[in-house]
Structure formats: structure tokens, C-alpha cells
Design goal:
Elements lengths: L9 H13 L5 H9 L3 H25 L6 H6 L4 H30 L7 H17 L2 H31 L5 H14 L3 H12 L20 H27 L2 H6 L4 H10 L1 H35 L17 H18 L4 H28 L11 H21 L2 H21 L1 H11 L4 H15 L2 E5 L6 H11 L4 E7 L5 H17 L7 E7 L5 H11 L6 E3 L17 E2 L2
Parallel strand pairs: 1-2, 1-4, 2-3, 4-5
Helix pairs in contact: 1-7, 1-10, 1-13, 2-3, 2-9, 2-10, 3-9, 3-10, 3-15, 3-16, 5-6, 5-13, 5-14, 5-15, 5-17, 6-13, 6-14, 7-10, 7-13, 8-9, 9-16, 12-13, 15-16, 15-17, 18-19
Length: 576
């Protein structure tokens, strides 16, 4: 129970991810207006519909598999480690871009009030939040909550002042109808303009995926509420703010102030005092988006390193429950990219767009895979297939649209994605790499011995797989061969029905037959029988007895007739 007290409440969890997604109000209005003119509020209502679909997608998967990692965790339990790692890389790149872009724009907003060097100020801001997250998720969530409440208050005041201005009869809306004709023509007609506006405005849902990456830090039942709260915020504020901006400023002025649109609109609505409030709010909430990136990437990279997709040294935890090495590596990467680009964030903007839309798409695809191949997986919610397909198609079209807007977006994404993928694959398939190194170093005894020692250490790791029937044995071993580096495998058979002993003896007899036939001859396979039914107790017992981490324990599935849930098993992996 002591650990439970440190988990995040609904407000705190909503604040951590809400600062990211609701910071979109600072820029998404301008994006939509410049493509669609007066049709922009309807476009953003359409974005709200897409988010509604993704709410169902995320609720089904994450409540069935409530482990940190988001799309990575979904695909890890639905496909293979390699496919899951692609989702992990893409999510990581999305967080890098989120942190750097949000920090830079936050400093740029601040620079409208006080003199501050952009690049140096951005590095300092990234460093401050790195130290904050190292101090613990609970403390950082408190800061996020303060920022979030202030941001909601500021947006609410913006809407109220916009309503007062419209009531007084001050309006540029009629004038903007005329300007819209030119925008529609430039977009290739109404449909083309709306398509480009929709694609670009999907930036307004970035951050929705973040809650799934720290679900383990949330109190029970909170995750679904964070999705609901983010959906409400986006569906209400973004269309309303866009409508107010169209009413309070002509489109040429909107185009000229696109980088700081809300501060310009705030000046029109309330003068210098309100502009100052909006600028301060922009700085704070964009800083909160940096915090979201740190919290999300901590949960993601810890999960991936525990699954041997990343080096194990990243997982060292401090007394406050955070992962300093992950945070410092992330800070170093963000800072180095900022310095390399010299503050020119065009390339990162391309990475950001493609990365987070790909993450959303892969999550929807993972949902469909789970429906097909894990139909009996115990769930608290079933997302209608039509909503899942709608969500997937929407974000795929968003990717296509953003590439059409600027083909360089895909190129920039590839620059970052390909090296990260190569590094990840080297870690995942390090046993193959070492086997090649062993053959190449036969004539170099000293180096050959070192590689042999590392390979022996790597392959001697323990894995556990619960097996119920003999016909499941080959798929289990084949999965381990494709996805794991360990050769030391313990199979566990639990009492399940009247013919339990018969099933156990069938498994016992087939193991030597497989090895005599040359099937996975390098595996060292042990088989044990537990005279208890499968559940959290036997998982805990086996993990303690064999001294193996629970993410190295593989199972078939969790069914509705089980009296326990997936999270009660402590992070085991579903592989059949």
C-alpha cells in the first residue's frame, strides 16, 4: 500500500499529458486557418472525432495490458520484439522532438517579454526539467499540475474575452470569408484544402499517446479518465479558440503572427495585460510539454531496456523512483541535436509530425492485431472495429498529407530513424552479432576469448514459459529463438484439469524428441510441474524460485474466466 500512495491521481496524471496535448492551442489554430480559412473550426472538430476514436483504441489495449510502453508494449504482446522496437524508436523520436521544439518555442515566447538567448536558454530549460524529473515523478507531477491549472484558466479567459468581443459586434469573420477563397484555391479546391488542413492540424493530438507510457505510475482507473479529459479539452478549446481568432483578426494578420498567434490575438482581445498573461502561460505550458516528454520517455526506455532492446545500465533507479541515466541520456541527446541544428527546428518538425502520427497508427494497428490473434485476452473494454479502422485511416492519411505538404518531412524523419533502428537491432540481435564475431576472431585468441565470455554470459540468461499442452511447445521455442538471446529455458506446467498429468507427460516426452531431431539443439530446457492452477501466486513463486524477472516470463493469454487481471501478474509477456 505504501507504493500505491505515490501513484498519480486523475488530476496529476491528466496534467502530465494534458500540458502536451493542450499546448497545441498555441499553434494549431494558425495551422488550420492558413490552410482552410473559415472552415478551420470544423476541421478541428473533425480532429476531435479522430481523438474520440483513439480514446476507444487506447482504452481497450492499455486496460488489457496496463504496462508502460504504449505502442511498444501493445506490439510486444501482439507481434515480435523487432516490430515492437520500431514502435519504441518512433515513440522515442517523437519525445525528442517534443522536448526540443517545446523548449525552444517556450523560450521564444519568453523572449517577447525579456531578453534571453534562445539556444542557451533552451538548454538551461531542458536541464532544469531533467533535474526535476530525477527528483521524482511525484514532485514533477505537482509542477505539471500547477502549470495545467493555470493553462486551463488562461484558455477559459481567452474564450470569455472572445465571447465579449463578439457580443460587442467587433468581427473580422465576414472579411475572412473573402480571404478563404484564395486559401481554398491554393489548396486545390475545398476538398484539397480541407485535407491539407486536417493533416497539418493532427499536430493538435500530439501528447495523447503519452498517458500510455506511464500508466504504471497512475492510480487504478485513472488512465481511462486521462483520455477522457484530454479529449474534452481538445474538442472544446481548439475549435472555440480558432473561431475567436477568426473573429478577432483578419487572415493576413493571422499569417503574419502564426508563430505567436495566441499572444497576438490576446492583444486584440484584452490589450497588453492579457498578452502578457498568454505569453507567460505559453512559456509554462510548453515547459510542461518538456516535462511530459521526460516522464514518458522514462517509462518507455525503462521498459525497453528491461526487455533487452536497450542496454541494461539505463535501468538503474534512484531513491526517488526515477531513472537518472535515462534522463541524462535523453537530455544530452536533446541538447546535442539543438546545438547541431543551431536552433533551426525545421528538420525536427518533420520528425515530430511523422513520428507521433506513426506511433498513433501503430497503436491502432496493434489493436487490430490483438483483436485477431488475442480474441480471448481478458479486456475491460472492447473498441468497436469501425472506430479502430477509422482512427488508423485518419492518421495514415495524416502522414500522407504531411509528406505532401513538405516532402522533406519524410527525409528528416529517415535521418533520425534509420541510425536509431540500426542501434536497436544491434542490441536485440547481439547474440547473432557475437556469433559472427566469434567466427571472425578465431585467429585472435585474446579478443576471441573476450567475445566468447560475453556470448556465454548473454546466452546463459534465464527464461520461463508457462506451457499447457504439447502442441504449444514448438511455437514457444520458435518465438524465443526469434526474439531472445537466452538459451536457458524453464518450462512450467500447472494443474488445470483432470488430465493435467497426462498433458505434463506428453510435454516431457516430446522435449527430447525435438532435440534429437535437431530442433533448437542449443537450448537447455528444463520442465517443472506445479500442482496449483495458473495465477499470480505461481508466477511469483516461480520468479522467486528461479530468480528470474517477470518480464522474462512468457504466458499464453489471460482469459475472462481467470479471476485475476494482466497487471496482477507483474509484467509477464503474452506470446501465444
Amino acid at each position: 500500500m505504501a507504493r500505491q500512495q505515490h501513484k498519480l491521481s486523475q488530476l496529476a496524471a491528466t496534467a502530465v499529458c494534458g500540458n502536451d496535448i493542450l499546448s497545441s492551442a498555441l499553434y494549431v489554430s494558425g495551422i488550420a486557418i492558413l490552410f482552410a480559412g473559415i472552415w478551420a473550426p470544423l476541421v478541428l472538430l473533425g480532429i476531435g472525432v479522430v481523438l474520440y476514436c483513439y480514446k476507444a483504441v487506447y482504452t481497450e489495449v492499455v486496460e488489457a495490458l496496463p504496462i508502460n510502453g504504449g505502442a511498444y508494449n501493445c506490439l510486444l504482446n501482439a507481434t515480435s520484439k523487432t516490430v515492437a522496437s520500431i514502435a519504441g524508436i518512433t515513440t522515442f523520436l517523437s519525445y525528442v522532438a517534443t522536448a526540443v521544439i517545446s523548449a525552444t518555442v517556450a523560450i521564444q515566447y519568453l523572449a517577447t517579454l525579456v531578453t534571453v538567448p534562445i539556444i542557451a536558454g533552451t538548454v538551461v530549460l531542458l536541464g532544469l526539467f531533467a533535474l526535476l524529473v530525477i527528483s521524482g515523478t511525484k514532485d514533477s507531477a505537482t509542477v505539471a499540475t500547477v502549470i495545467f491549472v493555470f493553462h486551463i484558466a488562461t484558455l477559459t479567459l481567452f474564450v470569455i474575452l472572445g465571447g465579449v468581443t463578439a457580443f460587442k459586434g467587433v468581427s473580422y469573420f465576414a472579411e475572412n470569408i473573402g480571404h478563404t477563397s484564395a486559401l481554398i484555391a491554393r489548396g486545390g479546391g475545398l476538398f484539397g484544402a480541407l485535407f491539407l488542413a486536417f493533416s497539418a492540424s493532427l499536430l493538435g493530438v500530439s501528447g495523447f499517446e503519452s498517458s500510455a507510457n506511464f500508466v504504471e505510475e497512475q492510480q487504478p482507473g485513472v488512465f481511462r479518465k486521462t483520455l477522457r479529459n484530454m479529449l474534452i479539452g481538445v474538442a472544446i478549446f481548439n475549435p472555440l479558440i480558432t473561431l475567436i481568432v477568426l473573429n478577432s483578426m483578419p487572415i493576413p494578420a493571422i499569417a503574419g503572427a502564426k508563430d505567436f498567434l495566441l499572444s497576438a490575438a490576446a492583444f486584440s482581445l484584452g490589450g497588453v495585460w492579457f498578452k502578457t498573461i498568454v505569453v507567460v502561460d505559453a512559456f509554462l505550458v510548453l515547459s510542461g510539454a518538456v516535462l511530459t516528454a521526460y516522464v514518458g520517455v522514462s517509462g518507455l526506455l525503462n521498459r525497453m531496456s528491461s526487455d533487452d532492446c536497450l542496454p541494461q545500465f539505463l535501468r538503474k533507479k534512484n531513491s526517488r523512483g526515477s531513472y537518472p541515466r535515462i534522463i541524462l541520456v535523453f537530455f544530452s541527446l536533446c541538447s546535442s541535436i539543438l546545438l547541431i541544428t543551431g536552433g533551426n527546428l525545421l528538420s525536427l518538425a518533420g520528425v515530430y509530425t511523422i513520428a507521433f502520427l506513426s506511433v498513433m497508427s501503430m497503436f491502432a494497428a496493434g489493436n487490430l492485431i490483438l483483436k485477431e490473434y488475442r480474441p480471448d485476452l481478458k479486456r475491460t473494454f472492447h473498441a468497436p472495429t469501425v472506430l479502430v479502422v477509422t482512427a488508423l485511416v485518419a492518421t495514415i492519411f495524416g502522414i500522407i498529407g504531411n509528406i505532401r505538404i513538405d516532402s522533406q518531412n519524410l527525409t528528416y524523419f529517415e535521418w533520425y530513424f534509420v541510425p536509431a533502428l540500426v542501434l536497436m537491432l544491434l542490441v536485440i540481435y547481439q547474440d547473432r552479432v557475437m556469433q559472427i564475431a566469434l567466427r571472425l576472431t578465431k585467429g585472435i585468441p585474446l579478443f576471441h576469448g573476450w567475445v566468447q565470455d560475453r556470448f556465454t554470459e548473454l546466452s546463459s540468461g534465464k527464461l520461463v514459459a508457462f506451457v499447457r499442452e504439447a502442441n504449444n511447445l514448438y511455437p514457444i521455442l520458435e518465438y524465443i529463438e526469434r526474439n531472445e538471446t537466452s538459451w536457458n529455458i524453464t518450462l512450467v506446467h500447472c494443474k488445470n484439469r483432470s488430465d493435467s498429468q497426462k498433458k505434463f507427460h506428453e510435454i516431457k516426452e516430446i522435449i527430447p524428441q525435438l532435440q534429437r531431431a535437431g530442433v533448437f539443439p542449443h537450448f537447455i530446457i528444463d520442465l517443472i510441474h506445479k500442482n496449483v492452477t495458473f495465477g499470480p501466486e505461481v508466477v511469483n513463486e516461480v520468479a522467486k524460485e528461479l530468480k528470474v524477472k517477470k518480464n522474462k516470463i512468457f504466458i499464453g493469454s489471460i482469459h475472462h474466466f481467470h479471476e485475476f487481471n494482466y497487471d496482477d501478474l507483474g509484467g509477464v509477456r503474452i506470446i501465444l
